[in-house]
């Protein structure tokens, strides 16, 4: 079990787990805890990996995000792959939510008192369209109280490792100045953190750079080869 978990944060009765890439059943380039069904991996192994991930938060019911680098948020109450979107919200006890990522920022919002959880996924495009604010808004619509809630950011690629064309930095700077470092580097985590903090949420960062740490999946480190997706998982307790 320990190899499945990269790090975790407990908020009241809710544990938010950043998943390692290890401890799963996938082989080769996907080794080993790949949770994505769209990267060419064996679907049967992916399904078993999702079960393993669910065990980290004490459930066999897992709803997995299918991101599109946009701002769509879905309310979910059943397990399986959710409709396309970069945010999930749930009030269903015993259901885990997974935000997939492999350099982008997976993040969660939890309200243990009111029984509401959410997960989001943001790369530079997600920051540009502000998936963070949309997830916050839908979290509140679902019954979450921001004053008593906490956001948890999982590991992502750091600004030093995320070099981009100057044009991309120029495009993002007026939207999220804090996310642009110099002329060629983007700090996606800072962009996500800024919006969540301004909404009034307490924000906790689980440290780690996906590019630098081989315990984590990294699209950039794969350099064109297939790779899996890890991310963040959180569940409401079943009782």
Provide an overview of this structure.
The chain is globular. The strands form 3 sheets. Strands 1-2-14-7-3-5 form a 6-stranded mixed sheet, covered by helices on one side. A hairpin with a 4-residue loop joins β8 and β9. It is built from 6 helices and 14 strands. It has a single domain, classed as CNF1/YfiH-like putative cysteine hydrolases (4-Layer Sandwich). The model has no long low-confidence stretch (mean pLDDT 97). With 239 residues, it is of the alpha/beta class.
Notable characteristics:
CNF1/YfiH-like putative cysteine hydrolases, 14 strands, 6-stranded mixed β-sheet, 239 residues, alpha/beta
Q: Describe the largest sheet.
A: 6 strands, mixed
The CATH architecture: 4-Layer Sandwich
The unreliable regions are none
CATH top level assignment = Alpha Beta
Annotation field: number of helices:
6
Helix and strand composition category: alpha/beta
Overall pLDDT: 97
Order of helices and strands: EEHEEEEEEEHHEHEEHEHE
Examine the coordinates and then state which fold CATH places here, giving the name of the CATH topology: CNF1/YfiH-like putative cysteine hydrolases
User: Strand-residue fraction?
Assistant: 25-35%
Spatial order of the strands forming the largest sheet: 1-2-14-7-3-5
**Which term fits the overall shape?**
globular
Structure in a nutshell:
This protein is α/β, with parallel strands linked by helices and 239 residues long. Helices cover 22% and strands 29% of the residues.
